[in-house]
Amino acid sequence: MRIGLIVGPWFTVPPEKYGGTERVVDALARALSDAGHDVLLAASSDSTCPVPQLDGLGPSRPGELGETLSELEHIIKAYAGMAEVDIIHDHTLGGPLYGHRPPGVPVVTTIHGPLNEQSAVLYRAMASDTAVIAISHCQRSRVPDVPMSAVIHHGLDLSTVSVGSGSGGYACFVGRMCPDKGLMEAVGIAREAGIPLRIAAKMHAKDEQRFYQEVVKPALGPQEEFLGELADPEKYQLMGDAAVLINPIQWHEPFGLVMIEALATGTPVIATPMGAAPEIIQHGKTGFLGDVHQLAGFVDAATKLSRAECRRAVEGYFSAGRMAAEHLELYARVIEQFKGKGVTGGPYVKENQRQAF
After folding, report:
1. Between β-strands 197-202 and 224-228, what pairing exists: parallel, antiparallel or unpaired?
2. Apex CA 174: angle with CA 207 and CA 222, to 5°?
3. Which tens digits make up the pLDDT trace of 253-270?
4. Tens of pLDDT along 27-61?
5. Phi then psi for 316, rounded to 5 degrees?
6. 14: preceding bond cis by omega (within 30 degrees)
7. Residue 302: strand, helix, or coil
8. CA dihedral 174, 110, 139, 183 (to 10 degrees)
9. 150: which of 185, 303, 313, 327 is 20 to 30 A away, CA to CA?
10. 352 Cβ contact list (under 8 Å, min separation 6)
11. Per-residue confidence at 342, pLDDT binned at 50, 70, 90?
C-alpha cells in the first residue's frame, strides 16, 4: 500500500520537544514502513523521520503555531505531491476540507484535538467525503452525531523507551504549563503525600508564561523543582526514575500521550478519571484513578505496583505496531469502499468498539 501522511508545518516529525501529534505520526510512519508499506510524509523539511519525505516544503515554524495562512500554504503543497499514493491520512485540521485533492485518492483524518460543538461543525462537513478517526471512546462520545469510521488509540515506538528503576525518590509531572493539565493540583497532591515533585512542562505561549509567572512560580517550594521543557531522552529518564507520574487532568483530554509514555518506562500513573484516562489506566494494576482529593492517598500504593506490569500493558496494547495494524485495516476498507461505492461518508462508518483492556 502507498500511504501519504500529512502533518502540520509547525513542528518537526519527530518533534525535538513539544509536539504530541508529530510524535504519534512519527511512530505511525515508522510502523507502517516496518510492515512493508510505502510511506510518503508531508512534514516540515527539517524533519528526521526515516521515511521518504515530500520535497518542496519549508522548515518547521513553531512561532506560527495555529496560524491559518501558515497551515493552508503547507496543505496545498502537500496535497499537490500526493497524486501517486493509494490513500492520504491527513493529520491537519484544515486539510480534509481542501477542495483540490488528487482525483481518485481517498482521505482519512484523525481528530487530534478536542471534539466539541464548534469543531464538530468541521468534522460533520469532512465526513461527507473523508473517513474520520477518533483517538479515544471518550472523544467519540463528546459529540455522538459526528460520523466516525474508527476509534484508534495512540501507540508508542517502544524501541526508544527504556524501563526505569523508579528509584529517584520523587514524583513527576509532565505536560503543558496551563491550568487544564492540573499542575497546581499535582503540587498539592505531592505535598500531601510527602513526596518531592519534579516538573517538566512546555512554556512557549504567552498564556503559558503568564500562568507560570503569576500562579505556579510563586507557589513552588523547596520540594518542587521546575525543569522546563525536556527532549525525549531526558523526559524518559525523568519518568523512568520517578516513583509515580501525577496527572490530575482537569479537562476531557482526548487521549493523554504522557500516560502511556510513563507506563512504557515502568512508572505507574495516578490521574483523575477524565477524558481517556479510564481507557489507559488499569485501576490498581498500572495506576489509580480518583478525585483530586483522593489521589494523594494513592501515591504510596502506586509506588508498590509492578513496573514490569506497567510496561507490559503498553507492549500489549499501546505499541506503534498495534496502532499501525488498526490503521491498515481501516485504510484497506476505505480504499475498497472508495473504489466500489464512490466518495460518501456513510460507507466508511463502522464503529470500533474495542476497549483498551
Report:
1. parallel
2. 85
3. 999 999 999 999 999 999
4. 999 999 999 999 999 999 999 999 999 999 999 98
5. -75, -30
6. yes
7. helix
8. 10
9. 313
10. 150, 151, 152, 326
11. low
